[in-house]
Amino acid sequence: MPNTILVGAQWGDEGKGKVIDVLTAQADVIVRYQGGSNAGHTVITGGRKYVLHLIPSGILHAGKQCVIGNGVVLDPFDLLREIEMLRGYDIEPAGRLLISSRAHMVMRWHRALDAADEARRASDRKIGTTGRGIGPAYGAKMGRRGLRIGDLLGDGFLDAVREATRETNETLAAWGAPTLCEEELVADYRAAAEALRPYIADTVATVNAADRAGKSILLEGAQGTMLDIDFGTYPFVTSSNPTAGGACTGTGLSPRRIDRVVGVIKCYTTRVGAGPFPTELADATGEHLRQKGGEFGATTGRPRRCGWFDAVVGRYAAMVNGVDFWAMTKLDVLDEQPTLKICTAYLRDDGVRYETFPSDLGVLSRCTPVYEEMPGWLTPTSAITRYDDLPVKARAYVERLVELIGGRLGILSVGPARETTLRLGL
Ligand code: IMP
């Protein structure tokens, strides 16, 4: 398989876990490039459901090398819990999982700050974070006061933990939030350092050596384009770059070594957390999509907001990421809709039409979606195994989506299990 970047094209939760799992069969090395345990990648196989937050889902395939890249922010305790969870299923990560020594850590005080910061924001300014400490951890990285995984093994690490705990406690106390116990943290991090020692490596060297040896590399993103810190609906975004550019900065693999980009996109739209969502449906249709699609967060269990497919978002994601192939997911969730709406553009209240996603949320709040309608197929699609066997109206819908956003269809998913995946050249 050519070296491939896999990105989410909407607000996350596009079904990347399943697509990564399918593509992993053809890859040698799978590298996660950004985000942290805010992500939840669900894979259902052999009648079992796995939810992975940090470890690439490639770990579920025997013999595949998995890497957590430098662009990820990693909570050591979450990772250790995930390793134990896999062991409970007789999957041994040791020897197959490497963690970049350059990856920054989400420290326990980052989680405390994330929760305290959300709590003190006014209701219209809350981001609705996952509470996993992501913003404060990336803030520390960019502010050049972060701690990296490699530091876990260094002499000064426990002193740094003591100092940061004391400093953070001052902030937490000033905000009226619970403070942290310094000695408890020191003991916990000492234990974590020993447990993680065997996994820590210079993964920039590993990934590039694999590339030179002709191995195929799958670079997996978390979240999605519209949650990107640069290209998303700022400030209602995550604190990293889920878009394709983040794959290079988050792994150390050169852009010149990337062969193609796969965008994962749901046949409708969802969003979890606060922020603009032009095609949101706050009605019975939205509720039907949520129930039928199981649209509840894999990490927090929060109900996801649901709405019609937004081709403005899709086109924008195609452009920003350079999507070659689409993996479209969850077509079956639309099986019972008599009519489907597709947003093709936005119309501002003064008549200005937007074909591309506006950067200004003030502008966006004055826009309403321009819809076209298509008839639904009203037939179950989950048992269908060949694209040509889909109802004509279902194919017409999918083909219209691809026509509106550009690129080629590579995978169409019609159900949650690995087996319900129609392959069209990917
Ligand atoms: P944070 O990444 O926890 O700081 O949350 C920032 C925003 O990104 C919130 O709206 C979250 O709900 C959203 N978010 C973070 N991770 C995911 C994800 O994996 N799927 C969907 N939304 C996410």
Structure write-up:
The chain has 2 domains: 4-96 and 202-423, Adenylosuccinate Synthetase, subunit A, domain 1 (Adenylosuccinate Synthetase, Chain A, domain 1, 3-Layer(aba) Sandwich); 104-199, Orthogonal Bundle (Adenylosuccinate Synthetase, subunit A, domain 2), CATH 1.10.300.10. The chain contains 12 helices and 20 strands. The chain has helices spanning 16-24, 76-88, 108-120, 134-142, 157-174, 182-196, 203-212, 244-249, 284-292, 311-321, 361-365, 392-405, and strands spanning 4-8, 29-32, 41-45, 48-52, 65-68, 73-74, 97-100, 104-105, 200-201, 217-220, 260-266, 269-271, 305-307, 309-310, 325-329, 339-348, 353-354, 367-375, 408-413, 421-423. The structure holds inosinic acid. Inosinic acid is lined by residues 11-13, 38-40, 127-130, 132, 134-135, 222-223, 227, 236, 238-239, 272-273.
Question: Short summary of the structure?
Answer:
The protein has 426 residues and is an alpha/beta fold. The chain is built from twelve helices and 20 strands.
Q: What gyration radius follows from the Cα positions, in whole Å?
A: 21 Å
Number of strands: 20
CATH level 3 topology of the largest domain: Adenylosuccinate Synthetase, Chain A, domain 1
The total count of helices amounts to 12
Number of self-contained structural domains: 2
CATH architecture of the largest domain: 3-Layer(aba) Sandwich
Give the cofactors and ligands: inosinic acid
Kindly estimate the percentage of residues that lie in beta strands according to DSSP: 15-25%
How does the major sheet shape up? 10 strands, mixed
Helix content: 25-40%
Principal-axis shape: globular
Distance between the termini: 9 Å
What strand order characterises the main sheet? 9-7-5-2-10-1-11-15-19-20
